Amino acid sequence: QVQLQESGGGLVQAGGSLRLSCVISRSIVSIRTMGWYRQAPGMQRELVATTTSDGITNYADSVKGRFTISRDNGKNTVYLQMNSLKPEDTAVYYCKVQPPWGGAYWGQGTQVTVSS
Predict the structure, then answer these.
(1) CA 59 → CA 17, 25, 71, 75, 95, distances in Å?
(2) How many helices (H) and strands (E) does the chain have?
(3) Residue 31: its pLDDT value, please?
(4) What phi and psi, each to the nearest 5 degrees, are found at residue 73?
(5) What is the pLDDT averaged over residues 12-17?
(6) pLDDT surpasses 90 at 32
(7) What average pLDDT score do residues 88-95 get?
(8) The pLDDT of residue 56 is above 90
(9) Taking Cα atoms as reference points, which of 49, 46, 52, 24 lies closest to residue 90?
(10) Terminal C-alpha separation, the chain
(11) Residue 41, pLDDT score
């Protein structure tokens, strides 16, 4: 069983920054793919960014150049640095990990609200 705990969300003005953190309950060294997703009201959950254990990152076009995903294996944590935030970035942000034994685990989500 794997548990995830997100934090770092909040209310910020457009153009501001936030850093989200996701702490995983076990070592993430063997977890190849970790990612952040978001879901706005009335919308489907969408991929924001992913990172692999060999350093490959992938971003949604809407966040490229503004968001940066990173992982700290020593702290069992994955981060999402969000800069130049826009009102359309408002959503609940979820952390997801895919362990090598299969399946996927999600956090409970953290709200990000960007005011114009």
Answers:
(1) 17, 25, 15, 23, 14
(2) 0, 11
(3) 86
(4) -65, -30
(5) 98
(6) no
(7) 98
(8) yes
(9) 46
(10) 40
(11) 92
- How far is 60 from 50, CA to CA, in rounded Å? 9
Alpha-carbon dihedral angle through residues 88, 18, 56, 59, given to the nearest 10 degrees: 10
Whether the pLDDT of residue 27 is over 90: the answer is no
Contact 26, 45 (CB under 8 A): no
d(CA 52, CA 48): 14
Q: Is 29 left (phi over 0), alpha (psi -120 to 50) or beta?
A: alpha
Give the separation between CA 59 and CA 89, rounded to whole angstroms: 14
